[in-house]
Amino acid sequence: MALQLENLKESNEFLNILFDNITSALFIVDQSAKIENVNDSFSILFQKREDQIVGELCGNALGCVFAIEEEKDCGTTSFCSKCKLRKDILKTMSEKVPTYRNKLSRDFYTSQTKDSKHFLYSTKFIQFHGKKYTLIIVDDHTELEKQKRRLEEQNETLKSLNEQKSKFLGIAAHDLRNPIGAINSFSEILLDSGNEFPDNEKEELLTLIKDSSQFSLQLLNELLDISNIERGKLRLDKNQENISQIVMDVIKINKVFARKKNINIINTVKLKDSTVSLDKSKIEQVLHNLLSNAIKYSTPHTTITVEIKDHSTNFEISVKDQGVGIPESELSKLFTEFGTTSAKTTANESSTGLGLAIAKKIVNGHGGEIMAKSKLNEGSEFLFTLPK
């Protein structure tokens, strides 16, 4: 008899050793969903000692976000009626029906810190000395789930980049076909029978070749710009610069193009001290784009007004025209790649549909914002800010 008792004690010790060395978190609950026993893996996973767990209701012991934040017992929270784990435990207890590797994703409190956890759990009915219990086996898949989500996000990024690449190639092929075709055709005409043309017609053909090549070069440059920016390669070489002087220099250049359409550019910039940290060439690019667009979409004999306002935290640069305007419903398209609106240039000027998207990324890169206000047939105003 003594030998049998000794063997029983040893077997119980062995079973306890097995119980505590299983890597899955194990816990046993009674019919009232109170925890009767846990293994070491459970204590490690939920960061609680055994004496803090045994006798506690399941959700409270696990640190369920609803039990903790609502300060209620497991079974009485607003979520308990929807809790899949609770339903499976009760079903296993009442119907002796096991569950296998069901998913559970929820926030739990461990050591006063709220974390999102992802588990796979199984339940098994146990009857011992006439009492009913449910054994719950939990495997932590949080890290695997995080890796899965990271891979999904990376796949989405790659998918987006691939779609963008295809879009760029499609736009490049479509928009470059006509100007390059024109360059090829006009060049052949001049080479084959250039001597037969009077000087004024030769000049016209050469002008068309020049305009077509300039548009092609602009499109290629902007495609490279937007592609580099999208890949995180917007490099800003910031220095302390006088924004008023930069604006005045850009206006001087654009007045030449405005003069061809009898458009007057008014410079209202009168600030004495307007020094700010910026990338001069990139902000010049933004200003050239805004003024170029204002000229393209303005009718002859109208006015474009450029203004700088000195606010407490930033400088606000405004370019306002009296052009064709843009319907309010289409303003959201302005700063997107290849975003087009129903507005038409007034002298059939070309547009790549990329300039404003690039301008937005440059301004945002400086910590500023860019926006547009417009009314159909009343003109548009484009504004951007530069933080001091």
Automatic annotation (TrEMBL):
PAS domain: residues covered: 11-56
EC identifiers of the protein: 2.7.13.3
Signal peptide: none
Keywords: Kinase, Phosphoprotein, Transferase, Two-component regulatory system
InterPro entries in the cross-refs: HATPase_C_sf (IPR036890), HATPase_dom (IPR003594), His_kinase_dom (IPR005467), HisK_dim/P_dom (IPR003661), HisK_dim/P_sf (IPR036097), PAS (IPR000014), PAS-like_dom_sf (IPR035965), Sensor_HK_Regulatory (IPR050736)
Enzyme class (EC, first level): transferase
GO function terms (MF aspect): phosphorelay sensor kinase activity
SUPFAM superfamilies recorded: ATPase domain of HSP90 chaperone/DNA topoisomerase II/histidine kinase, Homodimeric domain of signal transducing histidine kinase, PYP-like sensor domain (PAS domain)
Catalysed reactions listed for this entry: ATP + protein L-histidine = ADP + protein N-phospho-L-histidine
Domain Histidine kinase: 171-388
Alphabetized PANTHER family for the sequence: HISTIDINE KINASE 1, TWO-COMPONENT HISTIDINE KINASE
Protein name: histidine kinase
